[in-house]
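does this look right to u?? zinc ion version
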Amino acid sequence: MVLYTPGNTSGYPSEKVKSGIRFYFLGGAEEVGNVGCIIEDNTGTRLLIDYGMAPTRPPRYPSESPPVSDAIITHSHIDHIGMAPWLVGAHGTKLHGTELTAKVSEIMWRDTYKVSSIEKYPLSWDKRDLDLALDSWETHKIGESFNIGEWNCKFHLAGHMPGAVMVEINTPSARILWTGDIDTRNSPNVIGASPISCDILCLEGTYGARIHPNRSDEEQRFVERIKEVVNRGGVALVPAFASGRGQDILRILKRDAPHLNVHFDGMGTRLTKDWLLFPEYNNNFKELMKTWKWVKRVYGKSDRKKALNADVIVTTSGMLDGGPALWYLNRLNSNKSNAILLTGYQAEGSGGRLLLDKGQLSIYGQMTKINLEVNQYALSNHADGPSLVKFAKDCSPKEIILFHAPVEGISSLKDRLDGEFKVFLPENNKPLFLNL
Ligand SMILES: [Zn+2]
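got this back:
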């Protein structure tokens, strides 16, 4: 349960910062998801970066934030943005982000609210907070400089998804680069993140222990498999996250298999409409527009029935935890020519994980054996271990804080960066002081 009593249940230290910079993770330190970190120095400037919840079952929440006048939201994934309405309702916090992140936040928050009501998960904010949060955005362009207290900030492209940013923070004593979620490779919809020279690098490490296969080889492997399934008369069901992965899949299919009949269902259809309002965040807006016109969008029940005769269905949820993907799976399960192509990480406890491990998952509360072939593809939008190490070196920081990573990811990254840099592994709810 997370029912904060603003000001009474925050464990944030009451002492002022005397020297150096204090980092205090409310969440996301030795874990992936529910990120929130307060940064404060002796000028009295205090800033929160991200305030999300991990969409696990049940969700994981960050600790209560102390009062904070400004928060920067790096991007609109729920593990970075999900708890922001609470901040605004409780503390009147101003939210800083790109225009696209601000626009997409409404869909993300309304969906979070809906899911928590349906699944009866506690949520510490309500519809009033949500409405306030929608009015509390101050948006900034990439490269625009803006002040928070005594600090000067600037956004840089993070490569992770359209509208996602890294944050450069110039304090009187240091330049900090907070990566948010980054990918240094180009992907179908965004160009990769470039290094920024800094003194303190706060580096995400989601895939710090992994080496990704070559991106274009993996895309090819995915398309070949789709063609096999279609050629044998089957329908390929592609569960994909609504914000980023789904649109990447569509771009890949339009590019490499434009003759296929591809249907797109779920929250991603609404999110893509927002993407279309902000061409500057996409690496090839013309292609995105062409893809949007090419794909058959599913908006209602009769569209959904028609989609059962498609070649490919791309839909949410990416981890088969709900959404139209389960409705389709329930109907496609009877014909073994059909197949499931998973396109991302399947968290412990998710439907997709159960499917991979045991060949079954819960559909509308009923544990159901799945008779279809299942394949998984590494089409992640996070940099892998070697890319993160190269990125860190190219930023030439003095000190590195590793966060947003599972324990094995973080220790493997630390091993590779130790020696050349001072590397810190923060813990949630414990202050970390950096003095340059
Ligand atoms: Zn993300």
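The chain has 13 helices and 22 strands. idk if thats expected tbh
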